[in-house]
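> example.struct
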């Protein structure tokens, strides 16, 4: 058995994510039988001693029928309204279902601020720790009703990867309407299931189409991106079908299902993880050749002298892309000036600037580098 599968089996703290399409009927609306089957698998693992956080999509899908909507709305305001109506229905169903196992759930609704802001991040971490030590099953979703375009996680696969990091999970299980990652979209007759992914090189020949189910947002691209986000942060991932939840969550016993992604890097700080995979840049700084060598080659801070251009309307603390003179993004960072302050100082050496301007524009500790080969997989349009 691979180490990733062993890690899922042995995990003492596990994050499990389930997509909308795995909780709804073909006609739309929540499917109590599928939800109960999922809860049975989670409860069985929980009752064997593992702490489990459940990241569940389905709020918008559950809100469609009560609002007389026939399909997932495209505009944000109607999505927010559907999520408001649907989230409570979803959680009420979960509460009833977990109660069959005498388990208590706690609802946790997150926005990206809860992960990206250091103080909020610690707060979320404390809340999860307390819920888990009290034996509660946290049921997590994005707070869709208040999330604006700027602060949206975008999809729950990504949210689940970040939550796995926040709670310091031993493994992440992504449950979907497809039973594994395939070498090509499953409608392709030659597609074969991929059992193990040791690293990004194993994904080189894999074909993924951009579509996702009618009720969800992610698609396979976002699942693979989330899996790589988690594995890069040292957390192994199992991607499997929601219908195989019992086998996927069985602690090391039972048949090997789904696709296992091996953990790669060491655990990184969530703030930089967010910067790499989740943040929306507010602008860009163009670096000259010397600054590219210093920032990307020698891991130095970006000083005003090395900046040859500014794009966007950002404030101190915002995320900006760092580009080379050709416009290729080489990294991202938290900028320490407002865009309006920069024209007067770029191109100047620190010694020539007033005392209150003698600091880096982006500190080395606030930068992630993005090489061509590690560019996050782009998400399919929806
Ligand atoms: N290479 C691939 N392997 C597996 N599934 C794929 C692949 N390419 C595209 N898909 C599609 O991705 C879908 C899963 O994404 P999605 O419907 O968004 O799931 P969920 O609702 O669980 O988040 C599958 O139903 C499948 O049609
Ligand atoms: N937060 C949204 C789900 C977003 C999402 O990523 O959905 P999915 O692709 O089904 O996991 C909801 O609860 O409707």
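> example.seq
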């Amino acid at each position: 058995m691979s180490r990733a599968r062993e890690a899922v089996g042995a995990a003492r703290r596990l994050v499990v994510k389930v997509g909308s399409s795995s909780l709804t009927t073909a006609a739309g609306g929540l499917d109590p039988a599928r939800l109960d089957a999922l809860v049975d698998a989670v409860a069985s693992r929980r009752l064997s001693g593992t702490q489990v956080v459940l990241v569940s999509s389905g709020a918008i899908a559950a809100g469609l029928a009560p609002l007389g909507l026939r399909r997932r709305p495209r505009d944000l305001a109607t999505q927010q309204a559907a999520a408001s109506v649907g989230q409570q229905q979803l959680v009420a169903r979960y509460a009833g279902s977990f109660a069959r196992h005498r388990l208590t759930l706690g609802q946790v609704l997150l926005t990206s601020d809860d992960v990206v802001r250091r103080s909020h991040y610690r707060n979320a971490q404390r809340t999860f720790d307390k819920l888990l030590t009290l034996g509660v099953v946290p049921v997590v979703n994005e707070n869709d009703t208040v999330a604006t375009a700027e602060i949206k996680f975008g999809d729950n696969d990504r949210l689940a990867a970040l939550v796995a990091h926040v709670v310091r999970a031993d493994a992440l299980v992504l449950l979907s309407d497809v039973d594994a990652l395939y070498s090509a979209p499953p409608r392709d007759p030659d597609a074969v299931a991929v059992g193990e992914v040791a690293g990004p090189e194993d994904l080189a020949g894999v074909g993924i189409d951009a579509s996702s189910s009618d009720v969800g947002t992610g698609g396979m691209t976002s699942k693979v991106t989330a899996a790589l986000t988690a594995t890069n942060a040292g957390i192994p991932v199992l991607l499997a079908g929601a219908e195989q939840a019992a086998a996927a969550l069985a602690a090391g016993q039972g048949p090997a299902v789904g696709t296992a992604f091996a953990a790669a890097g060491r655990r990184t700080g969530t703030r930089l993880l967010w910067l790499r995979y989740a943040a929306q840049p507010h602008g860009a700084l163009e670096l000259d050749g010397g600054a590219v060598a210093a920032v990307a080659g020698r891991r130095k801070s970006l000083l005003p002298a090395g900046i040859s251009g500014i794009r966007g309307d950002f404030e101190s603390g915002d995320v900006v892309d760092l580009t080379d003179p050709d416009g290729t993004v080489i990294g991202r960072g938290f900028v320490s000036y407002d865009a309006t302050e920069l024209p007067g100082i770029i191109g100047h050496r620190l010694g020539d600037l007033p005392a209150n301007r003698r600091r880096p524009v982006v500190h080395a500790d606030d930068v992630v580098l993005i090489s061509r080969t590690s560019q996050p997989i782009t998400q399919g349009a929806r």
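> remarks
Residues 19-22, 176-178, 181-182, 184-186, 206-209, 212-213, 216, 218-220 surround adenosine-5'-diphosphate (ligand 1) (CB under 6 Å).
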